[in-house]
Amino acid sequence: MKPLHKVTIHHRQKNRTITFDVPEGEYILHSFESHGEKLPFSCRNGCCTTCAVKVLSGEIDQADGIGLSTEMRAKGYALLCIARANGPLELETQDEDEVYEMQFGNYFGQVKSQPGSPFDI
């Protein structure tokens, strides 16, 4: 039998806190959904930021995802759809636009268009 890890999610958008024991190796989003909890998600592939959370405590395995930069991961952000608990965790849901802006916002406006390109304004 797989070990269970207590995972607490502070769901900011719903102003509530949810806690379940998640089997080691199981995706956190899937585990919470199996208990009837609806959490934010979109792609389920670790490519977007809809299910982004901030890790408040504990360690998380999100090796399957490409939707967050190394810098964002180092700042404690994770994606629930591809995240697995390595032990007890406390997480907080984030605003998708906020996380997207933190990750990609500094790149907008830096791209210079070439004359004749579709981006030439």
Structural write-up:
The protein has 121 residues and is an alpha+beta fold. It has a single domain, classed as Ubiquitin-like (UB roll). The protein is built from 3 helices and 7 strands. Strands 2-1-7-3-5 form a 5-stranded mixed beta sheet. It has a two-stranded antiparallel sheet with strand order 4-6. The longest helix is centred in the C-terminal third of the chain and has 9 residues. The chain is globular, with a radius of gyration of 17 Å. The termini are far apart. The relative contact order is 0.22. The mean pLDDT is 87.
Kindly report the average pLDDT value.
87
Relative strand content: 25-35%
According to CATH, the fold-level topology is Ubiquitin-like (UB roll)
Largest sheet: 5 strands, mixed
Instruction: Look at the helices and sheets and give the structural class.
Output: alpha+beta
Number of helices: 3
User: What portion of residues is helical?
Assistant: 10-25%
- Rg over alpha carbons: 17 Å
Element layout with pairings:
Blueprint: E1 4-11, E2 16-23, H1 28-34, E3 52-57, E4 60-61, H2 70-74, E5 77-79, E6 84-85, E7 89-93, H3 96-104
Parallel strand pairs: 1-7
Antiparallel strand pairs: 1-2, 3-5, 3-7, 4-6
Q: Could you give a short description of this structure?
A:
This protein is α+β, with helices and mostly antiparallel strands and 121 residues long. The chain has helices spanning 28-34, 70-74, 96-104; strands at 4-11, 16-23, 52-57, 60-61, 77-79, 84-85, 89-93. It is built from three helices and seven strands.
